[in-house]
Design goal:
about 400 residues, 15 helices, binds 3-hydroxy-3-carboxy-adipic acid
Amino acid sequence: MRIELIDTTLRDGQQSPLMFDSNKYRFNIEDKKNIVHALIDIGVRYFEFFSPNVSELERDDFLELKEYIHTITMEPVTLLAHCRCNEEDIQQALELGFNGLNLYYGTSELSQKYNHGTSLVDIAKISAKILESLRQTYPDLYIRYSCEDSFRTEIKDILTIYDQLNQFVNVLGMPDTVGVATPDEVAKRVNILKNSYPNCDLECHFHNDRGLAVYNSIVAAKNGVKYIDCSIWGLAERSGISSTTALLLNLFEENREYVDGYKLTDCYPINVLMGSILKLQVPYTEPVSLTNRTHTAGVHQKAVLNNSEVYEAHNLSAFGVNRNSILLGPLSGWNLIAYYLREIENFEISNEVAKQIAKEFKNTREFNTKLNSPEKLLLKIVEKYNLVKRILPQNLSTSRLEKLD
Ligand code: HCA
């Protein structure tokens, strides 16, 4: 079964502290169009937006994006408003043209006490009443209902609520709002909900406070969850949620059917797109990144020059990372130095001389000034050796040999 990714880059993503760190605060309409376009190209068909009452700007941008999306795909796309389960928010969303609702109500004891002051009994009663009439008026509307902070809400309390409203919704959610879920608990709860409500699909939203968001998402998928929330770079409140491309990579590794119809080669470009919007490098923790094909230690570099699979287990070029990177630096060994001087600087150099140069290069203490790039330092050392440069024909001088042999 294909897993449907629910993109929330434009909702939870804009709640990320990185928006502040990058002085961006919010995506502008061009950013949003580029993001949505790239995600549609990848194959995402579900997009979550703020509830229209969050701000006029978000409201206006949604209207423009809704029109824009129709110009880029003929396929059905579900545009979800992330709304509190109250009549006013729902009404505004429907008037604006959303064709899906991601409704939520905080159900943990903390939420009952400090967020809204409503008891579980009342949450169930209020929500069931709203949903029943919503379903009557809009028989085809995509409706998801979630107990927010599910993993700090006792499962019996979730069942009490979902028992009363499952017949009115398409999807029941299980957000791990503060990132406390563990894989065992995810598997257990998914199975309880699956068995209790066979007519509803399930959706998960995992925060990364313990670094488990992607792992929990995979466990959810393996246990039968159809919809998983994610965002580019995993942008979301605090340390975020599952990153779209990390999720696709892991779903792919687990079971090819999960990623049926997704254009995986667009994964790295979408991470670079976010980098260009935020003016930041793709995070080094992103699995689908050039960093993940970058090698610094001598032993690694030598092996990778011969066969990159020695230190690259995942086929990241299938995810759009089309090249790898070997960084000349203080940990490089003579193999890379010989390679660099022969193939890139065109010097005639024996292995013995390369070894001597490597020794000097590794022992230099000048690596940490910005002015001295490792390449400059190396060439300074090389000057003393009076090496001869090969003169290459013009047409060859730009086509670099990428292997030692
Ligand atoms: C929030 C909380 C939320 C909602 C997730 C959901 C969470 O930012 O309002 O409704 O699926 O993690 O619970 O992101």
